[in-house]
Specification:
Number of strands: 13
Oligomer: single chain
Distance between the termini: 14 Å
Order of helices and strands: EEEEEEEEEEEHEE
Shape: globular
Helix content: under 10%
Strand content: 25-35%
Structural class: mainly beta
Radius of gyration: 20 Å
Strand order of the largest sheet: 1-10-5-8
């Protein structure tokens, strides 16, 4: 996850706020600005599927992503095929040198930190948490390089944002969110093909966006596994043919009684002590393992550590 300021602050498109944010102070950037392709300081196109959306309940917010038009000089002629219910497939040689997800938000009032995610074509692009606001109001900005998912952006599809929020007389904070995608092309005339492979396919193993509360649909606890079935489009006899290389992306974050798993010196409220290990099995065979690292949300220990 990259957080930074690719443009001057005054050019960032934060959501409008009816009462204004006269005393808002931008958080310190966590990382340097994203580097862009050589000779490309400004995006050649920007698509804005969500503008000033209010996150006031647990329901997912849905919008349509439309590919950049040819009039922008950044249109896409590369072939791509939507695989219904699974993802997008097409030739590896793509359209853009870089695609960036921009998430800009503001919030006024009192509210807990909330966790959520952003999906495109059912594929998770961003897992995030919100800061805790104050009465004067706050703004925050996230940018993430999602170029590895470039093929998803060649076809129109549904963008889903889900940040379950509860608004009461006490907890009044309602995040206002803008989500956009920026596309960059270098001045290089070199082909964009990155290897000798014929094509690339990006698929989700579990389309949580079909659920009433997508982020909650991903919940697992204790030794309970999350079981997913590989799509029938894969495999030697599938319509995509035999795969020569595969990568698996796993997003994992601890919440509720798992938020402080790393200090569960004893059994802890979720049990299991303070050691966590994520294991991935394929047909019963161990295919990978990862050790999650502690993350401190604004509701934990000290809000200034966020």
């Amino acid at each position: 996850l990259k957080r930074g300021n690719p443009f001057p602050r005054e050019t960032r498109e934060f959501p409008e706020n009816p009462i204004g944010l006269p005393n808002s102070v931008s958080p310190v950037d966590a990382d340097p600005p994203l580097a862009h392709p050589l000779g490309s300081t400004e995006p050649c196109a920007q698509v804005k599927p969500m503008v000033n959306v209010e996150v006031n309940n647990s329901n997912p917010i849905r919008a349509m992503y439309i590919t950049p038009g040819k009039e922008s000089g950044c249109g896409c002629d590369a072939a791509a095929e939507t695989i219904p219910h699974y993802g997008v497939s097409g030739p590896l040689q793509g359209c853009w040198d870089q695609v960036v997800l921009n998430f800009a938000a503001s919030q006024v009032g009192r509210q807990y930190d909330r966790y959520g995610a952003v999906w495109l074509h059912g594929v998770e692009l961003l897992r995030t948490t919100t800061p805790e606001p104050n009465e004067e109001g706050i703004t925050w900005y996230i940018e993430k390089d999602v170029t590895e998912y470039e093929i998803l952006f060649r076809k129109p599809g549904e963008v889903v944002l889900n940040i379950p929020n509860t608004v009461t007389e006490t907890y009044t904070g309602i995040p206002l969110v803008n989500i956009s995608f920026s596309f960059y092309c270098s001045n290089s005339t070199s082909p964009k093909d990155k290897s000798g492979h014929d094509g690339v396919t990006v698929l989700h193993l579990r389309n949580a966006t079909d659920a009433e509360t997508p982020i909650s649909d991903l919940k697992v606890q204790g030794p309970e596994p999350q079981v997913n079935v590989l799509p029938p489009v894969l495999g030697r006899d599938g319509p995509l043919g035999a795969a020569t290389h595969a990568q698996l992306k796993v997003y994992a974050s601890g919440h509720q009684c798992e938020e402080f798993w790393w200090i569960n010196a004893q059994a802890g409220s979720c049990s299991g002590g303070c050691y966590r290990e994520i294991l991935v099995y394929v047909d019963g065979l161990l295919a990978g393992a990862a050790l999650p690292f502690p993350v401190i949300y604004t509701g934990g220990i000290n809000p200034y550590l966020w």
